[in-house]
């Protein structure tokens, strides 16, 4: 196998980024950080050797993920690069660093993967942006709607009944921890002056959050408010992708969910026992009052009428009354 046989299948560039999704960014970053020579094949559908984007053809091997989802496919690509000897980004790490890498990689998978999937597939605005960019001009109607909606249903099953606010807040907490760790690094990457596979994974998420219109505002704002994360992303884009910093997406914040904007949309709490008692009491009182009035009208034979009097008539009545009194 030679390096020139390596082909990366990825989503096309979008919004100034080299690719549309965080997973494609991760896979390409791993190749570029490892300085592997490869060819890019941009895809606008799942017509890849594995049926998933991203995918990697190593010449004699096409690594496939054992889990569903494009982010799992990116991790499988990074692992296959290391196993094949084409580009092992972690070969130079010491045992303590490997242990830290495993801890942070697990944290990214649990929190950032979830937030990235949620904003792409579950969030109404995020999914709309993704569908338009991925399929809007690539597939004829009605396939441009049927295909992404089918994929969305599958991803919804994978994520389960996850709460959007908790997903985003979990990612925000991890981004703060990552920023603290990057500040403590003696170099520009996570473990110093040399990149690791963790940098490829982290870069994919951060670049997606910072520049993609598919990413929820709460994620973009968090990366933007932490200069160490923003400079980390833009430095890798410029030095390894030869890409200038893309312009910030123009968002209509009102079209995002409360969770995507960092606000909890907790449901109204159920009424207390005292609330129910007071409500029932008010209903009983109104019902009793209505019954009393109805009984008085029907059984007593009295009817209510309202007559509007002119001012002159009113004054005349007052004079008559005065005469009677005299």
From TrEMBL:
The organism's place on the tree of life at top rank: Eukaryota
Q: Which residues cross the membrane?
A: 284-304
Task: Name all Metaxin glutathione S-transferase domain ranges.
Answer: 173-234
Q: Which InterPro entries match?
A: Glutathione-S-Trfase_C_sf, Metaxin_GST, Mito_Protein_Transport_Metaxin, Sam37/metaxin_N
Q: What is its main location?
A: mitochondrion
Q: Where is the Mitochondrial outer membrane transport complex Sam37/metaxin N-terminal domain?
A: 24-152
Chain positions covered by the region annotation Disordered? 251-273
Q: Does the keyword Membrane apply?
A: yes
Cellular compartment(s): Mitochondrion outer membrane
Q: Which SUPFAM superfamilies match?
A: GST C-terminal domain-like
Keywords assigned: Membrane, Mitochondrion, Mitochondrion outer membrane, Protein transport, Transmembrane, Transmembrane helix, Transport
Q: PANTHER family under this entry? A: FAILED AXON CONNECTIONS-RELATED (PTHR12289:SF41), METAXIN RELATED (PTHR12289)
Could you say which protein family the record assigns here? Belongs to the metaxin family.
Q: State the protein's name.
A: Metaxin
Query: What's the source species for this entry?
Result: Tetradesmus obliquus
